[in-house]
Amino acid sequence: MREEEIIAATVAFVKDELKHAEGGHDWWHIERVWKNTLLIAKDENVNLLIAQLGALLHDIADSKFHNGDETIGPLKARTFLEQLQVTAEVISGVIGIIEHISFKGGHFERSYESPELAVVQDADRLDAIGAIGIARAFHYGGFKDREIYNPGIAPDLHMDRETYKKNTAPTINHFYEKLLLLKGRMNTDTGKKLAEARHRFMEIYLEQFYAEWRGDV
Ligand code: ADP
Ligand code: NI
């Protein structure tokens, strides 16, 4: 199969896999991450097939929606790619991305590195911040029936992985527990630059949110 055919087949597979996905982790999230991956990759030395397939397949079975099981996504992706007959090198690069892209709570330590992971992780993180990141956070909070904000519940800045997974705190807390930390964790120069503006937008948003909550504006 030519590369374009591999990509087209993967797009069709992912669209089908995600047809019932929650709105923050649906095909449109994947499409944005894919576009950002291509943008960031322009200035990086990466295998574009691995990076694109990693972007397309990174959320096909998010553990959040599979009782915390983190093995389903990589396994599904591997089975799919084997049937497309891509090389073993491409498969292991893609699986490396899927297994290591996510961060839970304050846990940023890396047990695996690749230039393709660095790019796709930045692309995924960009979609978690800025205006779209805000929309996704509140959408997810609604999906999970969380409070929007509760002045009596402080953000927990030092959660371990298990606590993060079980966390049921109000959505505003998630900004402090994750979203505002992402700017400082970008891997690439392009990612860092794009994160700046999106980060600033979240800060302005939060200022306005508290001003309205107090009744100041
Ligand atoms: P990743 O998929 O990169 O591991 P997450 O699953 O933590 O990251 O988050 C994916 C999306 O879901 C992000 O937009 C994030 O803001 C949102 N999200 C995850 N957990 C929460 C939460 N507790 N409250 C609000 N939004 C959340
Ligand atoms: Ni994602």
UniProtKB/TrEMBL annotation:
PROSITE patterns: HD
Domain HD: 26-129
Superkingdom, taxonomy of origin: Bacteria
UniProt-listed InterPro entries: HD/PDEase_dom, HD_domain
Record's protein name: HD domain-containing protein
Lineage: Bacteria, Pseudomonadati, Bacteroidota, Chitinophagia, Chitinophagales
